[in-house]
Design a protein that fits this description.
The complex is a heterodimer of chains A (about 180) and B (about 425). With about 180 residues, chain A is α+β, with helices and mostly antiparallel strands. Chain A has a single domain, classed as Protein Transport Mog1p, Chain A (3-Layer(aba) Sandwich). In chain A, about 30% of the residues lie in helices and about 25% in strands. The radius of gyration of chain A is 20 Å and the shape is globular. Helix content of chain B is about 20%, strand content about 30%. In chain B, helix 4 packs antiparallel against helix 6. The interface between A and B is medium-sized, with 32 and 35 residues.
Chain lengths: ~180, ~425
């Protein structure tokens, strides 16, 4: 009898450990800021900002998912850096998309959460620096922004995009779904 | 010879009767000439448009495919276009026979009977037509033609030219003469192994261009998928070795296929998720039934999750070979700390794996560390690379994971069976 109980306990313990291991990390999503934020639409990316930073918009960009290529340094003619802007119908979907993105890129280590003192961008931001490349993802309102660029350039990109989102129109129920103005 | 009548004629003055006679003869001649001129208007018949995929499904006709960027394919696939023909590619499953097409003809005549003969003048055709009789045909009406012939038995992109020989018998025989018109049309088609599967249930022609080229001549799923995997591994991308971030999708299931196709052949960063999505997408386009699988680490040290340790691997592209991914040195001893938090690959229903992200070391010392346990051991050289294609899941994990590594001088990761190092997840893929 004792043996049986022992086996049952062992099996339950293994099941618990296995279940816990399979829960994807949610990065303390429940406590993120901005959950009551406005839904933004008609977000305009300033053309001058695009040309100044020599960003190339991918032709496959859409009104809800805009993608730019950015040179990581002067020799990077292929422009291996990037800026992704995704707009969602509501704040919750945008924040959950950030949770999923953080899990997708956490192959080696979890990107640390950025405090507002480091980068005052977004309602919630995560990121890290490898060599001179800054990789940051943040959510402001219903928009997910992912930046992978040279440190000096990335800061400007982060502030400009965040500012563009904050200045954008607040979505109303009679409007079409939220989108970017390309 | 009596020349008198001629002399009389030559002496004749044009009287009113003669004038009338001349006028009658002239009118008769005009009518006769006119009649002859109309009767020598031969009927000409020219293929105007051809549909290869003209109905739902593929029991009789071609498969439904999409254009280069995933948009709706143009049907009819061939059009005369004012003498500058436009031709879209179409697709069939290997070894299909007696396919049907729809064609319509333009003509200088409205109504006619047709006898249609269709032969392949060059290339590998999809079939021929012999003496198809079409009664009471009206120009620009659609006709369904059943072809006689078999499709090739292997994956490929093939072109051919059809010679159309159409004998047209006009219903208006007073104004038209029956005639045979001869014209040529040229076409390109893909041959797949089976019905395409998600996320390429309606495959993009750009994907089929690559898939059918890389797997050209293959007639089995194993051979074709292995050819795809090998080509993707050599396609110019390199492994993103700082953190393993994806380049072509920000979620587990999103695959930015247009961007991937645009960058194919250039040196851009990818991770395992990108390449697994690519193998599934390209292989399922020709009918494979692969799914995207991920093997996540379930190892913990001091309460924190760590990656499972790897044997010596050769990541895609110019990224150096390593047994210590995302950490230093790139080739470490058994106290190394690098590893995979997760790894993605393509897997079929029988749990066989294709991986276009890395080659693993098949020699007698796959982790390139010797003399370890209890110490950290010594690095050794040597490798016998193998790209995992059609490898049983257990064998694959055994070659990928170094499942007896001493970790961080403090802990021993005891996943003696590689399956104990992690757990599986699968998900669908959506492309855009």
């Amino acid at each position: 009898m004792k043996k049986k109980i022992f086996y049952v306990v062992i099996i339950c313990f293994c099941f618990f450990i296995n279940t816990m291991a399979q829960i994807t990390d949610n990065y303390n999503y429940e406590n993120w800021n901005g959950k009551d934020g406005d839904i933004k639409t008609k977000i305009e990316i300033p053309p001058q900002f695009i040309s100044t930073n020599e960003m190339s918009m991918r032709y496959s960009s859409t009104e809800t998912f805009v993608r730019f290529r950015i040179a990581l340094n002067e020799k990077d003619t292929l422009k291996r850096g990037y800026l992704h802007l995704k707009i969602f119908p509501n704040v919750e979907e945008a924040q959950l998309a950030l949770v999923e993105y953080l899990n997708v890129i956490s192959n080696f280590s979890k990107p640390p959460r950025l405090t507002t003192e480091e980068f005052k961008v977004g309602d919630v931001a995560f990121g890290s620096k490898f060599d001179d490349i800054l990789s940051i993802s943040y959510v402001r309102n219903n928009v997910l922004v992912i930046v992978n660029a040279k440190y000096s350039k990335a800061k400007e990109i982060l502030y400009t995009t965040d500012n563009a989102i904050q200045k954008a129109t607040i979505w109303q129920k009679d409007m079409p779904k939220p989108l970017f103005v390309l | 010879m009596d020349m008198e009548p001629f002399k009389k004629l030559s002496n004749l003055e044009p009287t009113g009767k003669v004038k009338k006679l001349v006028a009658l003869i002239f009118l008769f001649s005009c009518c006769l000439y006119g009649r002859v001129a109309w009767a020598t208007t031969y009927v000409t018949v020219q293929p105007y448009e051809i549909k290869f995929n003209y109905e739902a499904g593929y029991s009789n006709d071609a498969l439904t495919i999409k254009d280069d960027e995933g948009g709706t394919t143009i049907v009819p696939e061939w059009a005369y276009n004012g003498g500058s023909p436009v031709s879209e590619n179409f697709a069939y499953i290997k070894n299909q026979s007696d396919r049907s097409i729809q064609v319509r003809f333009n003509s200088n005549c409205t109504d006619m009977h047709l006898i249609i003969n269709l032969t392949v003048s060059s290339g590998t055709g999809i079939g021929t037509v012999c003496n198809h009789f079409e009664a009471n045909y009206t120009a620009l009406d659609w006709i369904t033609l059943e072809l006689d012939g078999n499709l090739p038995g292997s994956v490929g992109t093939r072109s051919f030219t059809w010679q159309w020989s159409v004998y047209a018998l006009p219903l208006d025989i007073t104004n038209y003469c029956a005639a045979t018109s001869t014209n040529s049309t040229s076409h390109t088609y893909y041959t797949l192994l089976a019905a395409p599967q998600s996320p390429m249930a309606e495959p993009w022609s750009s994907v089929l261009d690559y898939a059918c080229s890389w797997a050209n001549g293959q007639n089995t799923f194993t051979g074709a998928t292995s050819a795809i995997t090998l080509s993707l591994y050599s396609s110019g991308f390199y492994y993103e070795s700082t953190r393993g971030a994806p380049g072509y999708g920000d979620t587990w299931s999103e695959f930015l296929l247009n961007d991937f196709l645009s960058d194919l052949g250039s040196s851009y960063a990818v991770n395992c998720l990108d390449m697994a999505k690519a193998v599934v997408t390209f292989a399922n386009a020709f009918g494979a039934t692969l799914t995207l699988s991920r093997f996540h680490s379930s190892l913990y040290v001091g309460g924190d999750g760590v990656g499972y340790p790897l044997n010596y691997i050769d990541p895609i592209g110019s990224t150096p070979a390593t047994n210590n991914t995302f950490s230093t040195p790139s080739i470490g001893d058994d106290c190394r700390t690098g590893g995979f938090g997760y790894h993605a690959f393509a897997e079929n229903g029988n749990n066989y794996i294709w991986d276009a992200t890395l080659r693993y070391d098949m020699d007698m010392n796959p982790d390139n560390v010797s003399n370890s346990n209890p110490s950290c051991g010594d690095n050794t050289g040597g490798s016998a690379w193998e790209l995992p294609c059609n490898i049983a899941e257990s064998s694959y994990l055994g070659h990928l994971i170094d499942n007896w590594t001493k970790y961080n001088h403090l802990y021993i990761i005891d996943c003696g069976d590689p399956y104990d190092c992690g757990y599986f997840n699968t998900n669908g893929i959506y492309v855009e």
